[in-house]
């Protein structure tokens, strides 16, 4: 009965270990494919994936089967050491040793596969963290470059505005200097004319007389022209 139970557990363990190994292989392949397909870490967290949950479930089931098989082997060892069983029965000892070797092989294979899976998951966690850091650095660098470019453009605009303001101020200063110079020239001419008028009063009176004479001549000429015009109109109507 114990050998029958041991064989049944060994068959179950064999199937579980094969499935467990396939799960670890498919997990590694799927992670490599996702890493090649995406440049950034867009996959969900490892602890929340279906493969991780399946791994944990299968690991617990295999550990339970290994514990049961260990218990069966211990019972078979107790049976061989119990009273009434020949201690030199080579067939029993060989059978017990064979089941112990199978248990040891299954245990070793399980721990090896589990260690490989955990190593792959730890490596993926590390690589995912590194990829996130790289993407964060790239994103931050892009933002910084964008900000630097905007600052450079704004600085260039400010420099252009300063240059235009300086040119406008220079034009205003030149205009002011020209107007000041012209004002000085006009004042100089006026002062010279006043000086001449003060130095030569006779000339000033002569000029006034000439102006009066011109006005009188203009009035006389206008009166003559008006009289002639009236006479011509009267002649024309009569």
TrEMBL record:
It is found in: Golgi apparatus membrane. It comes from Acrocephalus arundinaceus. Its main location: Golgi. One of its GO terms (molecular function) is SNAP receptor activity. Involved in transport from the ER to the Golgi apparatus as well as in intra-Golgi transport. It belongs to a super-family of proteins called t-SNAREs or soluble NSF (N-ethylmaleimide-sensitive factor) attachment protein receptor. May play a protective role against hydrogen peroxide induced cytotoxicity under glutathione depleted conditions in neuronal cells by regulating the intracellular ROS levels via inhibition of p38 MAPK (MAPK11, MAPK12, MAPK13 and MAPK14). Participates in docking and fusion stage of ER to cis-Golgi transport. It comes from the Eukaryota. Belongs to the GOSR1 family. GO terms for biological process: endoplasmic reticulum to Golgi vesicle-mediated transport; inter-Golgi cisterna vesicle-mediated transport; protein transport; vesicle fusion. The lineage of its organism: Eukaryota, Metazoa, Chordata, Craniata, Vertebrata. Residues 27-49 are annotated as: Disordered. This is Golgi SNAP receptor complex member 1. The chain crosses the membrane at residues 219-237. Keywords: Golgi apparatus, Membrane, Protein transport, Transmembrane, Transmembrane helix, Transport.
């Amino acid at each position: 009965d114990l050998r029958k139970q041991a064989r049944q557990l060994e068959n179950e363990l064999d199937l579980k270990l094969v499935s467990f190994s396939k799960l670890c292989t498919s997990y590694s392949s799927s992670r490599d494919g996702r890493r090649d397909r995406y440049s950034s870490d867009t996959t969900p967290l490892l602890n929340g994936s279906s493969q991780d949950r399946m791994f944990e479930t299968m690991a617990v089931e295999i550990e339970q089967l290994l514990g049961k098989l260990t218990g069966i082997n211990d019972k078979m060892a107790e049976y061989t050491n119990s009273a009434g069983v020949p201690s030199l029965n080579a067939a029993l000892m060989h059978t017990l040793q064979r089941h112990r070797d199978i248990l040891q092989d299954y245990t070793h294979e399980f721990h090896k596969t589990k260690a490989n899976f955990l190593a792959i998951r730890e490596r993926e966690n590390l690589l995912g963290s590194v990829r996130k850091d790289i993407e964060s650095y790239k994103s931050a660098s892009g933002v910084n470059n964008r900000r630097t470019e905007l600052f450079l453009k704004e600085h260039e605009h400010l420099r252009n505005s300063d240059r235009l303001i300086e040119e406008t101020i220079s034009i205003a200063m030149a205009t002011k200097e020209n107007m000041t110079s012209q004002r000085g020239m006009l004042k100089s001419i006026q002062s010279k004319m006043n000086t001449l008028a003060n130095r030569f009063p006779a000339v000033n009176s002569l000029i006034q007389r000439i102006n009066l004479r011109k006005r009188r001549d203009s009035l006389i000429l206008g009166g003559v022209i008006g009289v002639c015009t009236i006479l011509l109109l009267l002649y024309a109507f009569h």
